Amino acid sequence: MLTTVLAIVAIVIIISLATYAAILWARLRRQRTERDSQQAAQTLQQQQNAASAKDNITILLRVVEQGQMSLTEAAIRVGAYRMALAPQLRDLEAFSAFDLLANETSHIPILDRWQALSNIEQAEFEQQRTVIEERHSAAITDATLQLLTVMQAKS
Q1: Radius of gyration over every alpha carbon of the chain, rounded to an integer in angstroms
Q2: Residue range 72-128, pLDDT digits in tens
Q3: Which are the contacts of 134, defined by CB distance < 8 A and separation ≥ 6?
């Protein structure tokens, strides 16, 4: 009789542990599925952001090529969009011309800080910007042509 009771207790313990293990396995499987789904969504979002950034940069480069935007503004915008590009595009050497111009003009106030300046201060900064842009103009033109070629080839 004691042997039967011990056997029943052992079976109940084994069934309980097996049930608990099955529950844990199901949770783990659900977590993995959710993680994989989130990673896929994140990858898709990054790809969409990269494609959008590439399109925006291409538009900016065309605007620069046509002389419809200041080189400084283009350099700042290209630099911002560049961060969303895929690494093989983000790391292109041609972007360095835009980086240099953006860095050399980073001391010039923008947006609200620009509006807060007097007309004389604005004129001084405009003169500085013009001189800096002239120094970088040839490099920006070359980089624009290189990047347009690459961006169109990778479409």
Answers
A1: 30
A2: 999 999 999 999 999 999 999 999 999 999 999 999 999 899 999 999 999 999 999
A3: none
